[in-house]
């Protein structure tokens, strides 16, 4: 393999990995999705690009779901985060960031390595250009720009939080113009159980998803692996001039431990052609979620590694 050329740093700054975040507050909810559609998306993103001439993929990727063949439902995790400072561990200027991620728990296999469980974020929105460019170019995050007005923990735990959510640039293809479009709206509902626990919140999820979350949010050394399709579009607009399957470990320090939000939430998602959450993940346009969580964290997103080719 020929030596790689040096990266030309100019224009909007792209930070060097690893990435360190401090003073982060993360709000999380578990959303119902369609198992067949999520499975098809994982196949499209990770298996099809790695197929050989016989159609055999070098990497297989499947969502962590229950073992009931009759079940049509799986779960994805939606997190909304406000991070006081994000910067490269190697230096640079710290910046604040708000973000929204939709994350699918998956099992990844690439022989001869051992299979591993990870989180795949097919949708991510941030409000800072440095995170947008660095996340896409270095790791492979499928990040877009969004306006992310976030709640406060005190309001959520008191049941008095006004509506919050996400606006992003886009729209429908038949619109006269694309602009800042409401995409996700979250409205707090009534108290459901003052004694709601983490184990109650994750009980509907697949066993392996529960184990992944316990490692990420409550373990002695909280960590989770992120998996990405890193790609760049060719000048013909049809092909990719570069494709890699990459992964990175996300290590967090919880201060203090995770807390449960014991309220219901009405979550509405708009059908928008430029951000097809409903059709690609099979998430209902409206659903009621019983409970959420909040955690305060510092984190390190490690140097990514290439899984394929």
- Note the main sheet: 13 strands, mixed
Task: Quickly give the CATH architecture.
Answer: Beta Barrel
Oligomer: single chain
Q: What would you call the shape?
A: globular
Average pLDDT number? 91
Binned, the helix content reads 10-25%
| Count of DSSP H/I helices | 6
* Share of residues in strands: over 45%
- Quick one: CATH superfamily? Acetoacetate decarboxylase-like
N→C terminal distance:
12 Å
Structural class: alpha+beta
Return the CATH class: Mainly Beta
CATH topology: Acetoacetate decarboxylase-like
Contiguous runs where pLDDT drops below 50 for at least 5 residues: none
Question: How many whole angstroms does the radius of gyration measure?
Answer: 19 Å
Helix-strand string? EHEEEEHEHEEHHEEEHEE
Plain-language structure description:
With 309 residues, this protein is an alpha+beta fold. It has a single domain, classed as Acetoacetate decarboxylase-like (Beta Barrel), CATH 2.40.400. It has helices at 35-47, 129-139, 153-158, 198-202, 207-217, 277-281; strands at 19-34, 60-63, 73-88, 91-109, 116-126, 143-147, 164-170, 179-191, 223-233, 240-254, 259-269, 286-301, 305-308. Strands 1, 2, 3, 4, 5, 6, 7, 8, 9, 10, 11, 12 and 13 form a 13-stranded mixed β-sheet that branches. The radius of gyration is 19 Å and the shape is globular.
